[in-house]
What we know:
Elements: E1 2-6, E2 11-16, E3 22-27, E4 37-46, E5 53-63, E6 68-72, H1 79-86, E7 94-99, E8 102-103, H2 109-119, E9 120-124, H3 135-146, H4 152-161, H5 177-189, E10 195-199, H6 207-224, E11 228-231, H7 235-238, E12 243-248, E13 251-257, H8 261-272
Parallel strand pairs: 6-11, 6-12, 9-10, 10-11
Antiparallel strand pairs: 1-2, 2-3, 4-5, 4-7, 7-8, 12-13
Helix pairs in contact: 3-5, 5-6
Amino acid sequence: MVRRRFSSAGLVVCATAKNGLTRETEMTETIVDTGAARAVDAVKAYGSGETEVRALDGVSVSFPAQQFTAIMGPSGSGKSTLMQCVAGLDRLTSGEAYIGETALSGLNKTDLTLLRRDRLGFIFQQYNLIPTLSAKENILLPLTLAGEKPDRAWFDTIVQTVGMANRIDNLPSQLSGGQQQRVAVARALVPRPDIVFADEPTGALDSRTGMEILSFMRQAVADAGQTIVMVTHDPHAASYANNVLFLADGQIIDEMPNPTADRVLDRMKRFEG
């Protein structure tokens, strides 16, 4: 069996021989792309002893900058847990998660909150809009909390692209579900975060609106150099990504560059076999 892990010097290839002993060969000439975010030997465990359940079981993965990565797997595979831990929404039991070169385990609650506010964007299945704020105020909320002024040209570009220019002064209650999600996407992108984490962003939308949201997310990567990591169960949604990671039992077991919906669906069916 051969597996890989990261070290400060480079890539470590771990090979288990027939006698059960593990031989590690450090390839110091290999340059490891640390990416916009990464996890190293990430373990997330619940319970202890015989009742311990590992949602993540020693995951090492890097999410490249300016790329759209989708994470897929069956229910309970650890895909949402991986995203939440790398995004600083949950703590690992052991191992490390990084945003750029910042190790999350070394941050206290205040620093972690500031990192999420200043460097990350989030898109969830539930839009999480403030009901008393207009669409414009919701979009600008991260910048308002940070005491920063928006880039007006970039704001106008995002609002036009998500098709909300004519509804920018409406409250969330005056918007459809698709329009609310467009606001949530704009809110994540307007601050120009290092990375956007999206958890089932089209799960509550009809297929047409979902396709429009995914097209815009892909456009943000291609045209604006945005980095996006998306958890999804939908092969069609995953096909918009540059690369798909497949998790099972808390481990990454496969990946698929340049995915198509049919190829992703075929790979997911193998989980059921």
